[in-house]
## 1
Amino acid sequence: MRLLLGLMWLLHWLPLPILGRLGAVVGSLLFVTVRSRRRITLINLRLCMPELTEQQRQHIALKHFQGYARAILERSVLWWASEARLRRLIIIEPCVPLEQIQAGPTILLCPHFVCLDVAGVAVLLESPLCSIYTRQQNKVFDEALRKGRSRFRPIKLFSRAEGIKPVLRAMREKLPFFMLPDMDFGAKDAEFVPFFGTPAATLTAPARIAASTGAKVIPVIATFLPNYRGWKVTFYPAWENYPGDDMIAATRKMNAFIEDRIRETPNEYFWTHKRFKTRPTGKESVYANVGKPPITSHPASL
């Protein structure tokens, strides 16, 4: 792992266009070789975008693998590049909402697009924050990841096992909560809410935390800029009258917002995750055949 981290450190010296193209090549190789994740991606795309042809979904899947690998390699820039270089490469629209953050509890809602680490850095260049964190199995990588994410401003990282109380305390200290709301963590604390029309176990925590703290919910999405020029981080207006009295309706609103953003840049959403792993009672797994040989060979032209 130390050797791999040393290689990543060397990569951060490369110009971003070279590093990004290298990532795209690696992603293309992964698309061909990591069959189980490719099949998960295509299952998700068939469920979420049935209006597309299979060739169009294959194309999005390939581009997703390229973008995901690219984002991993470009993480070296986020961890080791100078602040001046990062400020040149990260375009923020319209700006980090510091006044709103400082005015009271804030949830920065960041769905799983491949560049989400860039959104975290954009905030940390201006403000400390808190977030929930999954400890990495490799201690060396875990330490590097934590250092890379906290080198500009303090960041309080809490494990999911600690529950929500540490987050609420940090929010009372005016730390924005950088929240990743759209993964399947099982049925606990979740409701089956449509995601592109398919019931998906969706955390109601964003709505519940906003209701209990009076927090503003400000979505933030990070995407690639064209031609390997860097990244764009977009802060959207705080949702008005959110969550209201109906937590499920509020969660539906969140999923609908994420769907709209995915349609804008479908290649960059985290399709390799088993988003529909948890199923309503009586419904069979949509991933039952993952890991088995594909019925048809994938087109070599992609």
## 2
Amino acid sequence: MSLDELVAEELARPVDPRVAAMAEAIAAEHGEASRAVLFYGSCLRDQPIDGSMLDFYLIVSDYRSAYPKRWQAAANALIPPNVFPFAQDGLAAKYAVLSETDFHRLNGPETLNVSVWARFAQPSRLVWTKDEAARGKAIAAVARAAPTLLGSAGRNAGEDILDWWRRAFRLTYSAELRAERKGRAQSVVDSEPDRYRRFGEAAAPIVTANAGKWRLRRAQGKALSVLRLAKASATYAGGAEYIAWKINRHAGTSIALKPWQKRHPLLGALSLLPRLLLSGAIR
């Protein structure tokens, strides 16, 4: 199978009906601007959805049509994506918003930042689409992610495809402020080795060389992580509490926020950074 066919087949696999219902409700929040909703992350890979935070990407036609307030559209365009909390039927989620244009661009090798293509080189599901045109654009964008990820690492002579994936993921984890345990890059690949071998074999012939620039990727990625954190204080209710929960879950820490950190989520989140960086909880 071609890479496009593998991506289309994987995106079409069924999900828990509650996940599909939540995706439809998220799309309804943004009306006619909504084009597609993708489900991804740890709840798709290896965790029950009850008691977990589900992860979605909402793809919209354009930012101005997606929001009632111009500042929200401007923030999404300037530092994509915007991220919002969502809850339905006892399930909690967050969803990130990208335009079709940005989703296509951010999955490709023309994008220095790893945030989108590192995620969509991993398994995801296309759980809601407005129409077949939107479905086709979403599939085409996701199909760019695996070649971009592998191309960013470059392949060493004689390197096994799974080792290529593992090394590429290790590089991407180093380019963001991530609350992940050591060995995460290996566990992601080892959880579905057959999947990564098939995708790697299909992607290898069409990889566009974009290796190197990792010092610049790291500097840009970590700066963008801080900027997104700052922006989330205006768009994400309980942002500091969510950040603490995520770090505790991924890094095995036991951070408890003080009352002032809850009242001032931006300052609270930023106040965690020095201690977390020194401890290695985030890298």
## 3
Amino acid sequence: MIRLFHISDIHFGLEDRRALDWVAQCIAREKPDAVAITGDLTMRARHREFTAACHWIKSLDVAVTVEVGNHDLPYFNLVERFVDPYRRFRSIEALLEREIDLPGLAIVPLKTTARAQWRLNWSKGAVGMAALNHTLRAIDALPSGTRAVVACHHPLVEAGTRGKALTRGGSRALAALASRNVCAVISGHVHDPFHLIHPTPNGPVRMIGAGTLSQRVRSTPPSFNELTLAGGEITVRVRNLEHVSTRDMQIEDVPENALPPRTEGEPVAPVRAVPTIDPPVY
């Protein structure tokens, strides 16, 4: 049996300190085989936010892989965003987009965050061919019979709608992953957990989303996912301090508008490329 903790959207700068302390205690006490953090370590990619986020991550005595979220690219310094977008990750560089190999299972990263896109809203995801091919090659290089959990920040598709291309290239990527030995694609970004089976031309793919550990909650309290893989089956438990059941924590769809509501006291971006749309009610 393999047990993974799936954490996302910590948003240091607006983190939920009580939730973070609780998760750190769970990791120290229960010692999962690995922890996957699927992006948005910070709120505005400020140096002080990265310092706090990296300090917290380095304090976890466990194998960790960290994906990059859209909030983690420089927000105010556009020169750095284009020239050296991962500069502020230096202190945890060895953990960044890292493959973790476990007995019969590997966590394989897929980049969905872009420093720029040919659309106004750069917070949405994009899977370029280079990023997809890099992930496919990593999966193809795994030992025979090894299954993959693919970790990315953005959900690859809106699950129940034709949508507005939350992640460009996501449908193509999901279909390609369906043709490999992938047991799940895990992500964050929407701040609510979900567990869905999505059809593709190459067969169904399991999509698992983690909630947030920040104050930017949407329709569920701060939480993380505990994934258990045994006998070829994967079980998802959504753990939260409010003791809400997993079934009640998981939303039924990935919304087109994946932006969580602005928390009171949160700094407002100087420019919004697109108008904010009220999130759907679940």
## 4
Amino acid sequence: MLTRLLSNDFPRSRVLAIILLLIFAALALTPFLIPGVKALNVAAKVLVFVVLVASFDLLLGYTGIVSFAHTMFFGIGAYGVAIASTRMGPGWSALAVGIVCALALSFVLALAIGLFSLRVRAIFFSMITLAFAAAFQTLASQLSEFTGGEDGLTFKMPEVLSPGFEFELLGRTFDGRLVCYYLLFVAAVVLFLAMLRIVNSPFGRVLQAIRENEFRAEAIGYRVVVYRTVSSILSALFATLAGAMLAIWLRYNGPDTTLSFEIMLDVLLIVVIGGMGTIYGAAIGSGLFLVAQSYLQDLLKLASEAVSGLPWLAALLSPDRWLLWLGLLFVLSVYYFPTGVVGRLRAMQPPPRTPSRPPAAPAASSNAIKGDYVEN
């Protein structure tokens, strides 16, 4: 059962397996282990970014395509849910219509970008995707009648997902945010396993062959443009679903929430930290980066207060300098983990021992053979 779920792609490292199990358990039990709104928001954001980063790694790590339009599809998913819920009112039908329409639009745009842009060189393709992302962000800001403009859209979710819905479980009272969180949790696990299955299928093997040597893959009969276009479409669809997950959780969406170029940079950093070409790296990188981003200021505040007797050190550890320390942590992670956390941990794992073969029976000497022949 576990082999099928993981698509025969095991962590191949005991330490990595333990870390992944700890991340899974932490995300599954966060509402019960860590009380407070902030911890739940961070855990929900980790779930969303696991899907978003894994979908980008499907494009970058497995196919070798550098695209800056990934947040465009992320925003399409969020705007699909936001616009449908605003126009149709809170309800499951609005969520379904918004997600389906967003997936359809992402499919068309990804197909157009793939067919018209993937034939050019990598740097030109990256610039084209960057232009698409900038144009879509401008449209989202100007079409205020549909998107709310710079103010964005605030909408309501079905009652069971709203904070006003309360129920009792294990002697404690919970609200609809818990139901919404576990909806995101199940969706993230299912989408993560689906992407793991894709990269370990024959289609995924072809993508890796294209990444390693595009000309050789085309020479042996694979239509590179078709495979790269399909990879671009699949990556866009998964990013769209990640955007829908974020909109469901926040019940708000605006240009800076999902279309900001800073989000694209964060995704790139997380892919590098976790390890390119490893779907598992999306889980580890998202957890490390978002937890550091959310709690580094609190840790620096405690450290600054602890060394208040040393003014120069307290100033260096000021919470206002959290971006400096976050950048330093990123530089150290790239220096000590050039292949990402997953690649480093897998390299540290000793190779499996091959069973020793029994020694072969000694061959008979030529003299003995001759003697037997004479006697016969």
